[in-house]
Design a protein that fits this description.
11 helices; mainly alpha; globular; 3-stranded mixed sheet; 5 strands; about 270 residues
């Protein structure tokens, strides 16, 4: 394929990915027959042991030694995958920063470094968040641009549908991050709904007099996942944070990047 044709293919892929990213990203259906798998349990125990101050080397070793095929078969549904990858992300944030808090001084390098071994594949926090949990989104695409050629491991283990609520479940180690919860595949949809409701309630201020609402800057950084500003207002209405008949001007608050690795939900 010559250079011109390659550019056309890439441009077409970007346009298709952008179009498909319109609208609020939420699962179209909830599976009723979700089973907890061995790998979900490992991810749950990772967080339980970290919270209890226990050593997690053995769990990390088991996670590294899983075969890719077994992991794919062991996480059959999006509920399994969302719970697993959110727990893995949050668990490794805590585990790695407990060992060396100075890594957080250069957050870009920390999130981009491939230092998490899952099924023999070295992953970064960016890989897990944008690849596995957000279904192969380009990190700097604001939720509007998907990867054209994601790695095979990512294609096999990522979620099938994006879910805007995951942004209120992922903890990056900063004070403004959502608190760490242990997510269970059987209840992950209800847990995500509650996590989103609680976080947005704490970070949303509505003024009827000024016809304005300030909400979390997460909804700006990943605006495509939330359907842009119109989708953001729809979500805030769904959570009863602004009146159904309102059309306020939307602004976004500040984000506190102060390190906080003991922010567990009660």
């Amino acid at each position: 394929m010559n250079t011109r044709k390659m550019k056309i293919v890439i441009l077409t892929g970007i346009i298709i990915a952008t179009i498909s990213s319109c609208g609020i990203k939420r699962p179209s259906q909830v599976n009723q027959n979700v089973q907890t798998t061995e790998y979900n349990t490992w991810s749950e125990n990772l967080l339980k042991d970290l919270k209890a101050g226990k050593n997690v080397d053995d769990i990390q070793k088991k996670l590294a030694q899983i075969s890719e095929n077994d992991l794919e078969n062991g996480l059959p549904l999006d509920e399994n995958r969302k719970a697993f990858w959110i727990n893995i992300y949050n668990g490794y944030i805590i585990a790695l920063l407990k060992k060396d808090k100075s890594q957080f001084d250069n957050r870009g390098a920390f999130f981009g470094k491939k230092q998490i071994n899952i099924a023999g594949n070295m992953l970064s926090f960016d890989d897990i968040e944008n690849g596995m949990i957000r279904k192969s989104q380009y990190k700097f695409g604001l939720g509007y641009i998907g990867k054209i050629f994601p790695p095979a491991f990512e294609r096999h283990l990522r979620v099938k549908q994006r879910d805007f609520r995951i942004h209120f479940a992922i903890n990056c180690g900063a004070k403004s991050c959502p608190p760490v919860r242990i997510f269970y595949s059987k209840s992950v949809n209800d847990q995500l709904q509650n996590a989103a409701k609680v976080y947005l309630k704490d970070h949303t201020k509505y003024s009827k007099e000024n016809n304005s609402v300030e909400t979390s800057t997460l909804m700006s950084w990943f605006r495509g996942d939330f359907g842009g500003k119109s989708g953001t207002k729809k979500i805030l209405k769904d959570f009863n944070l602004i009146p159904d008949d309102s059309n306020p001007n939307v602004t976004f608050g500040n984000y506190d990047w102060t390190l906080d690795i003991n922010n567990y939900a009660e």
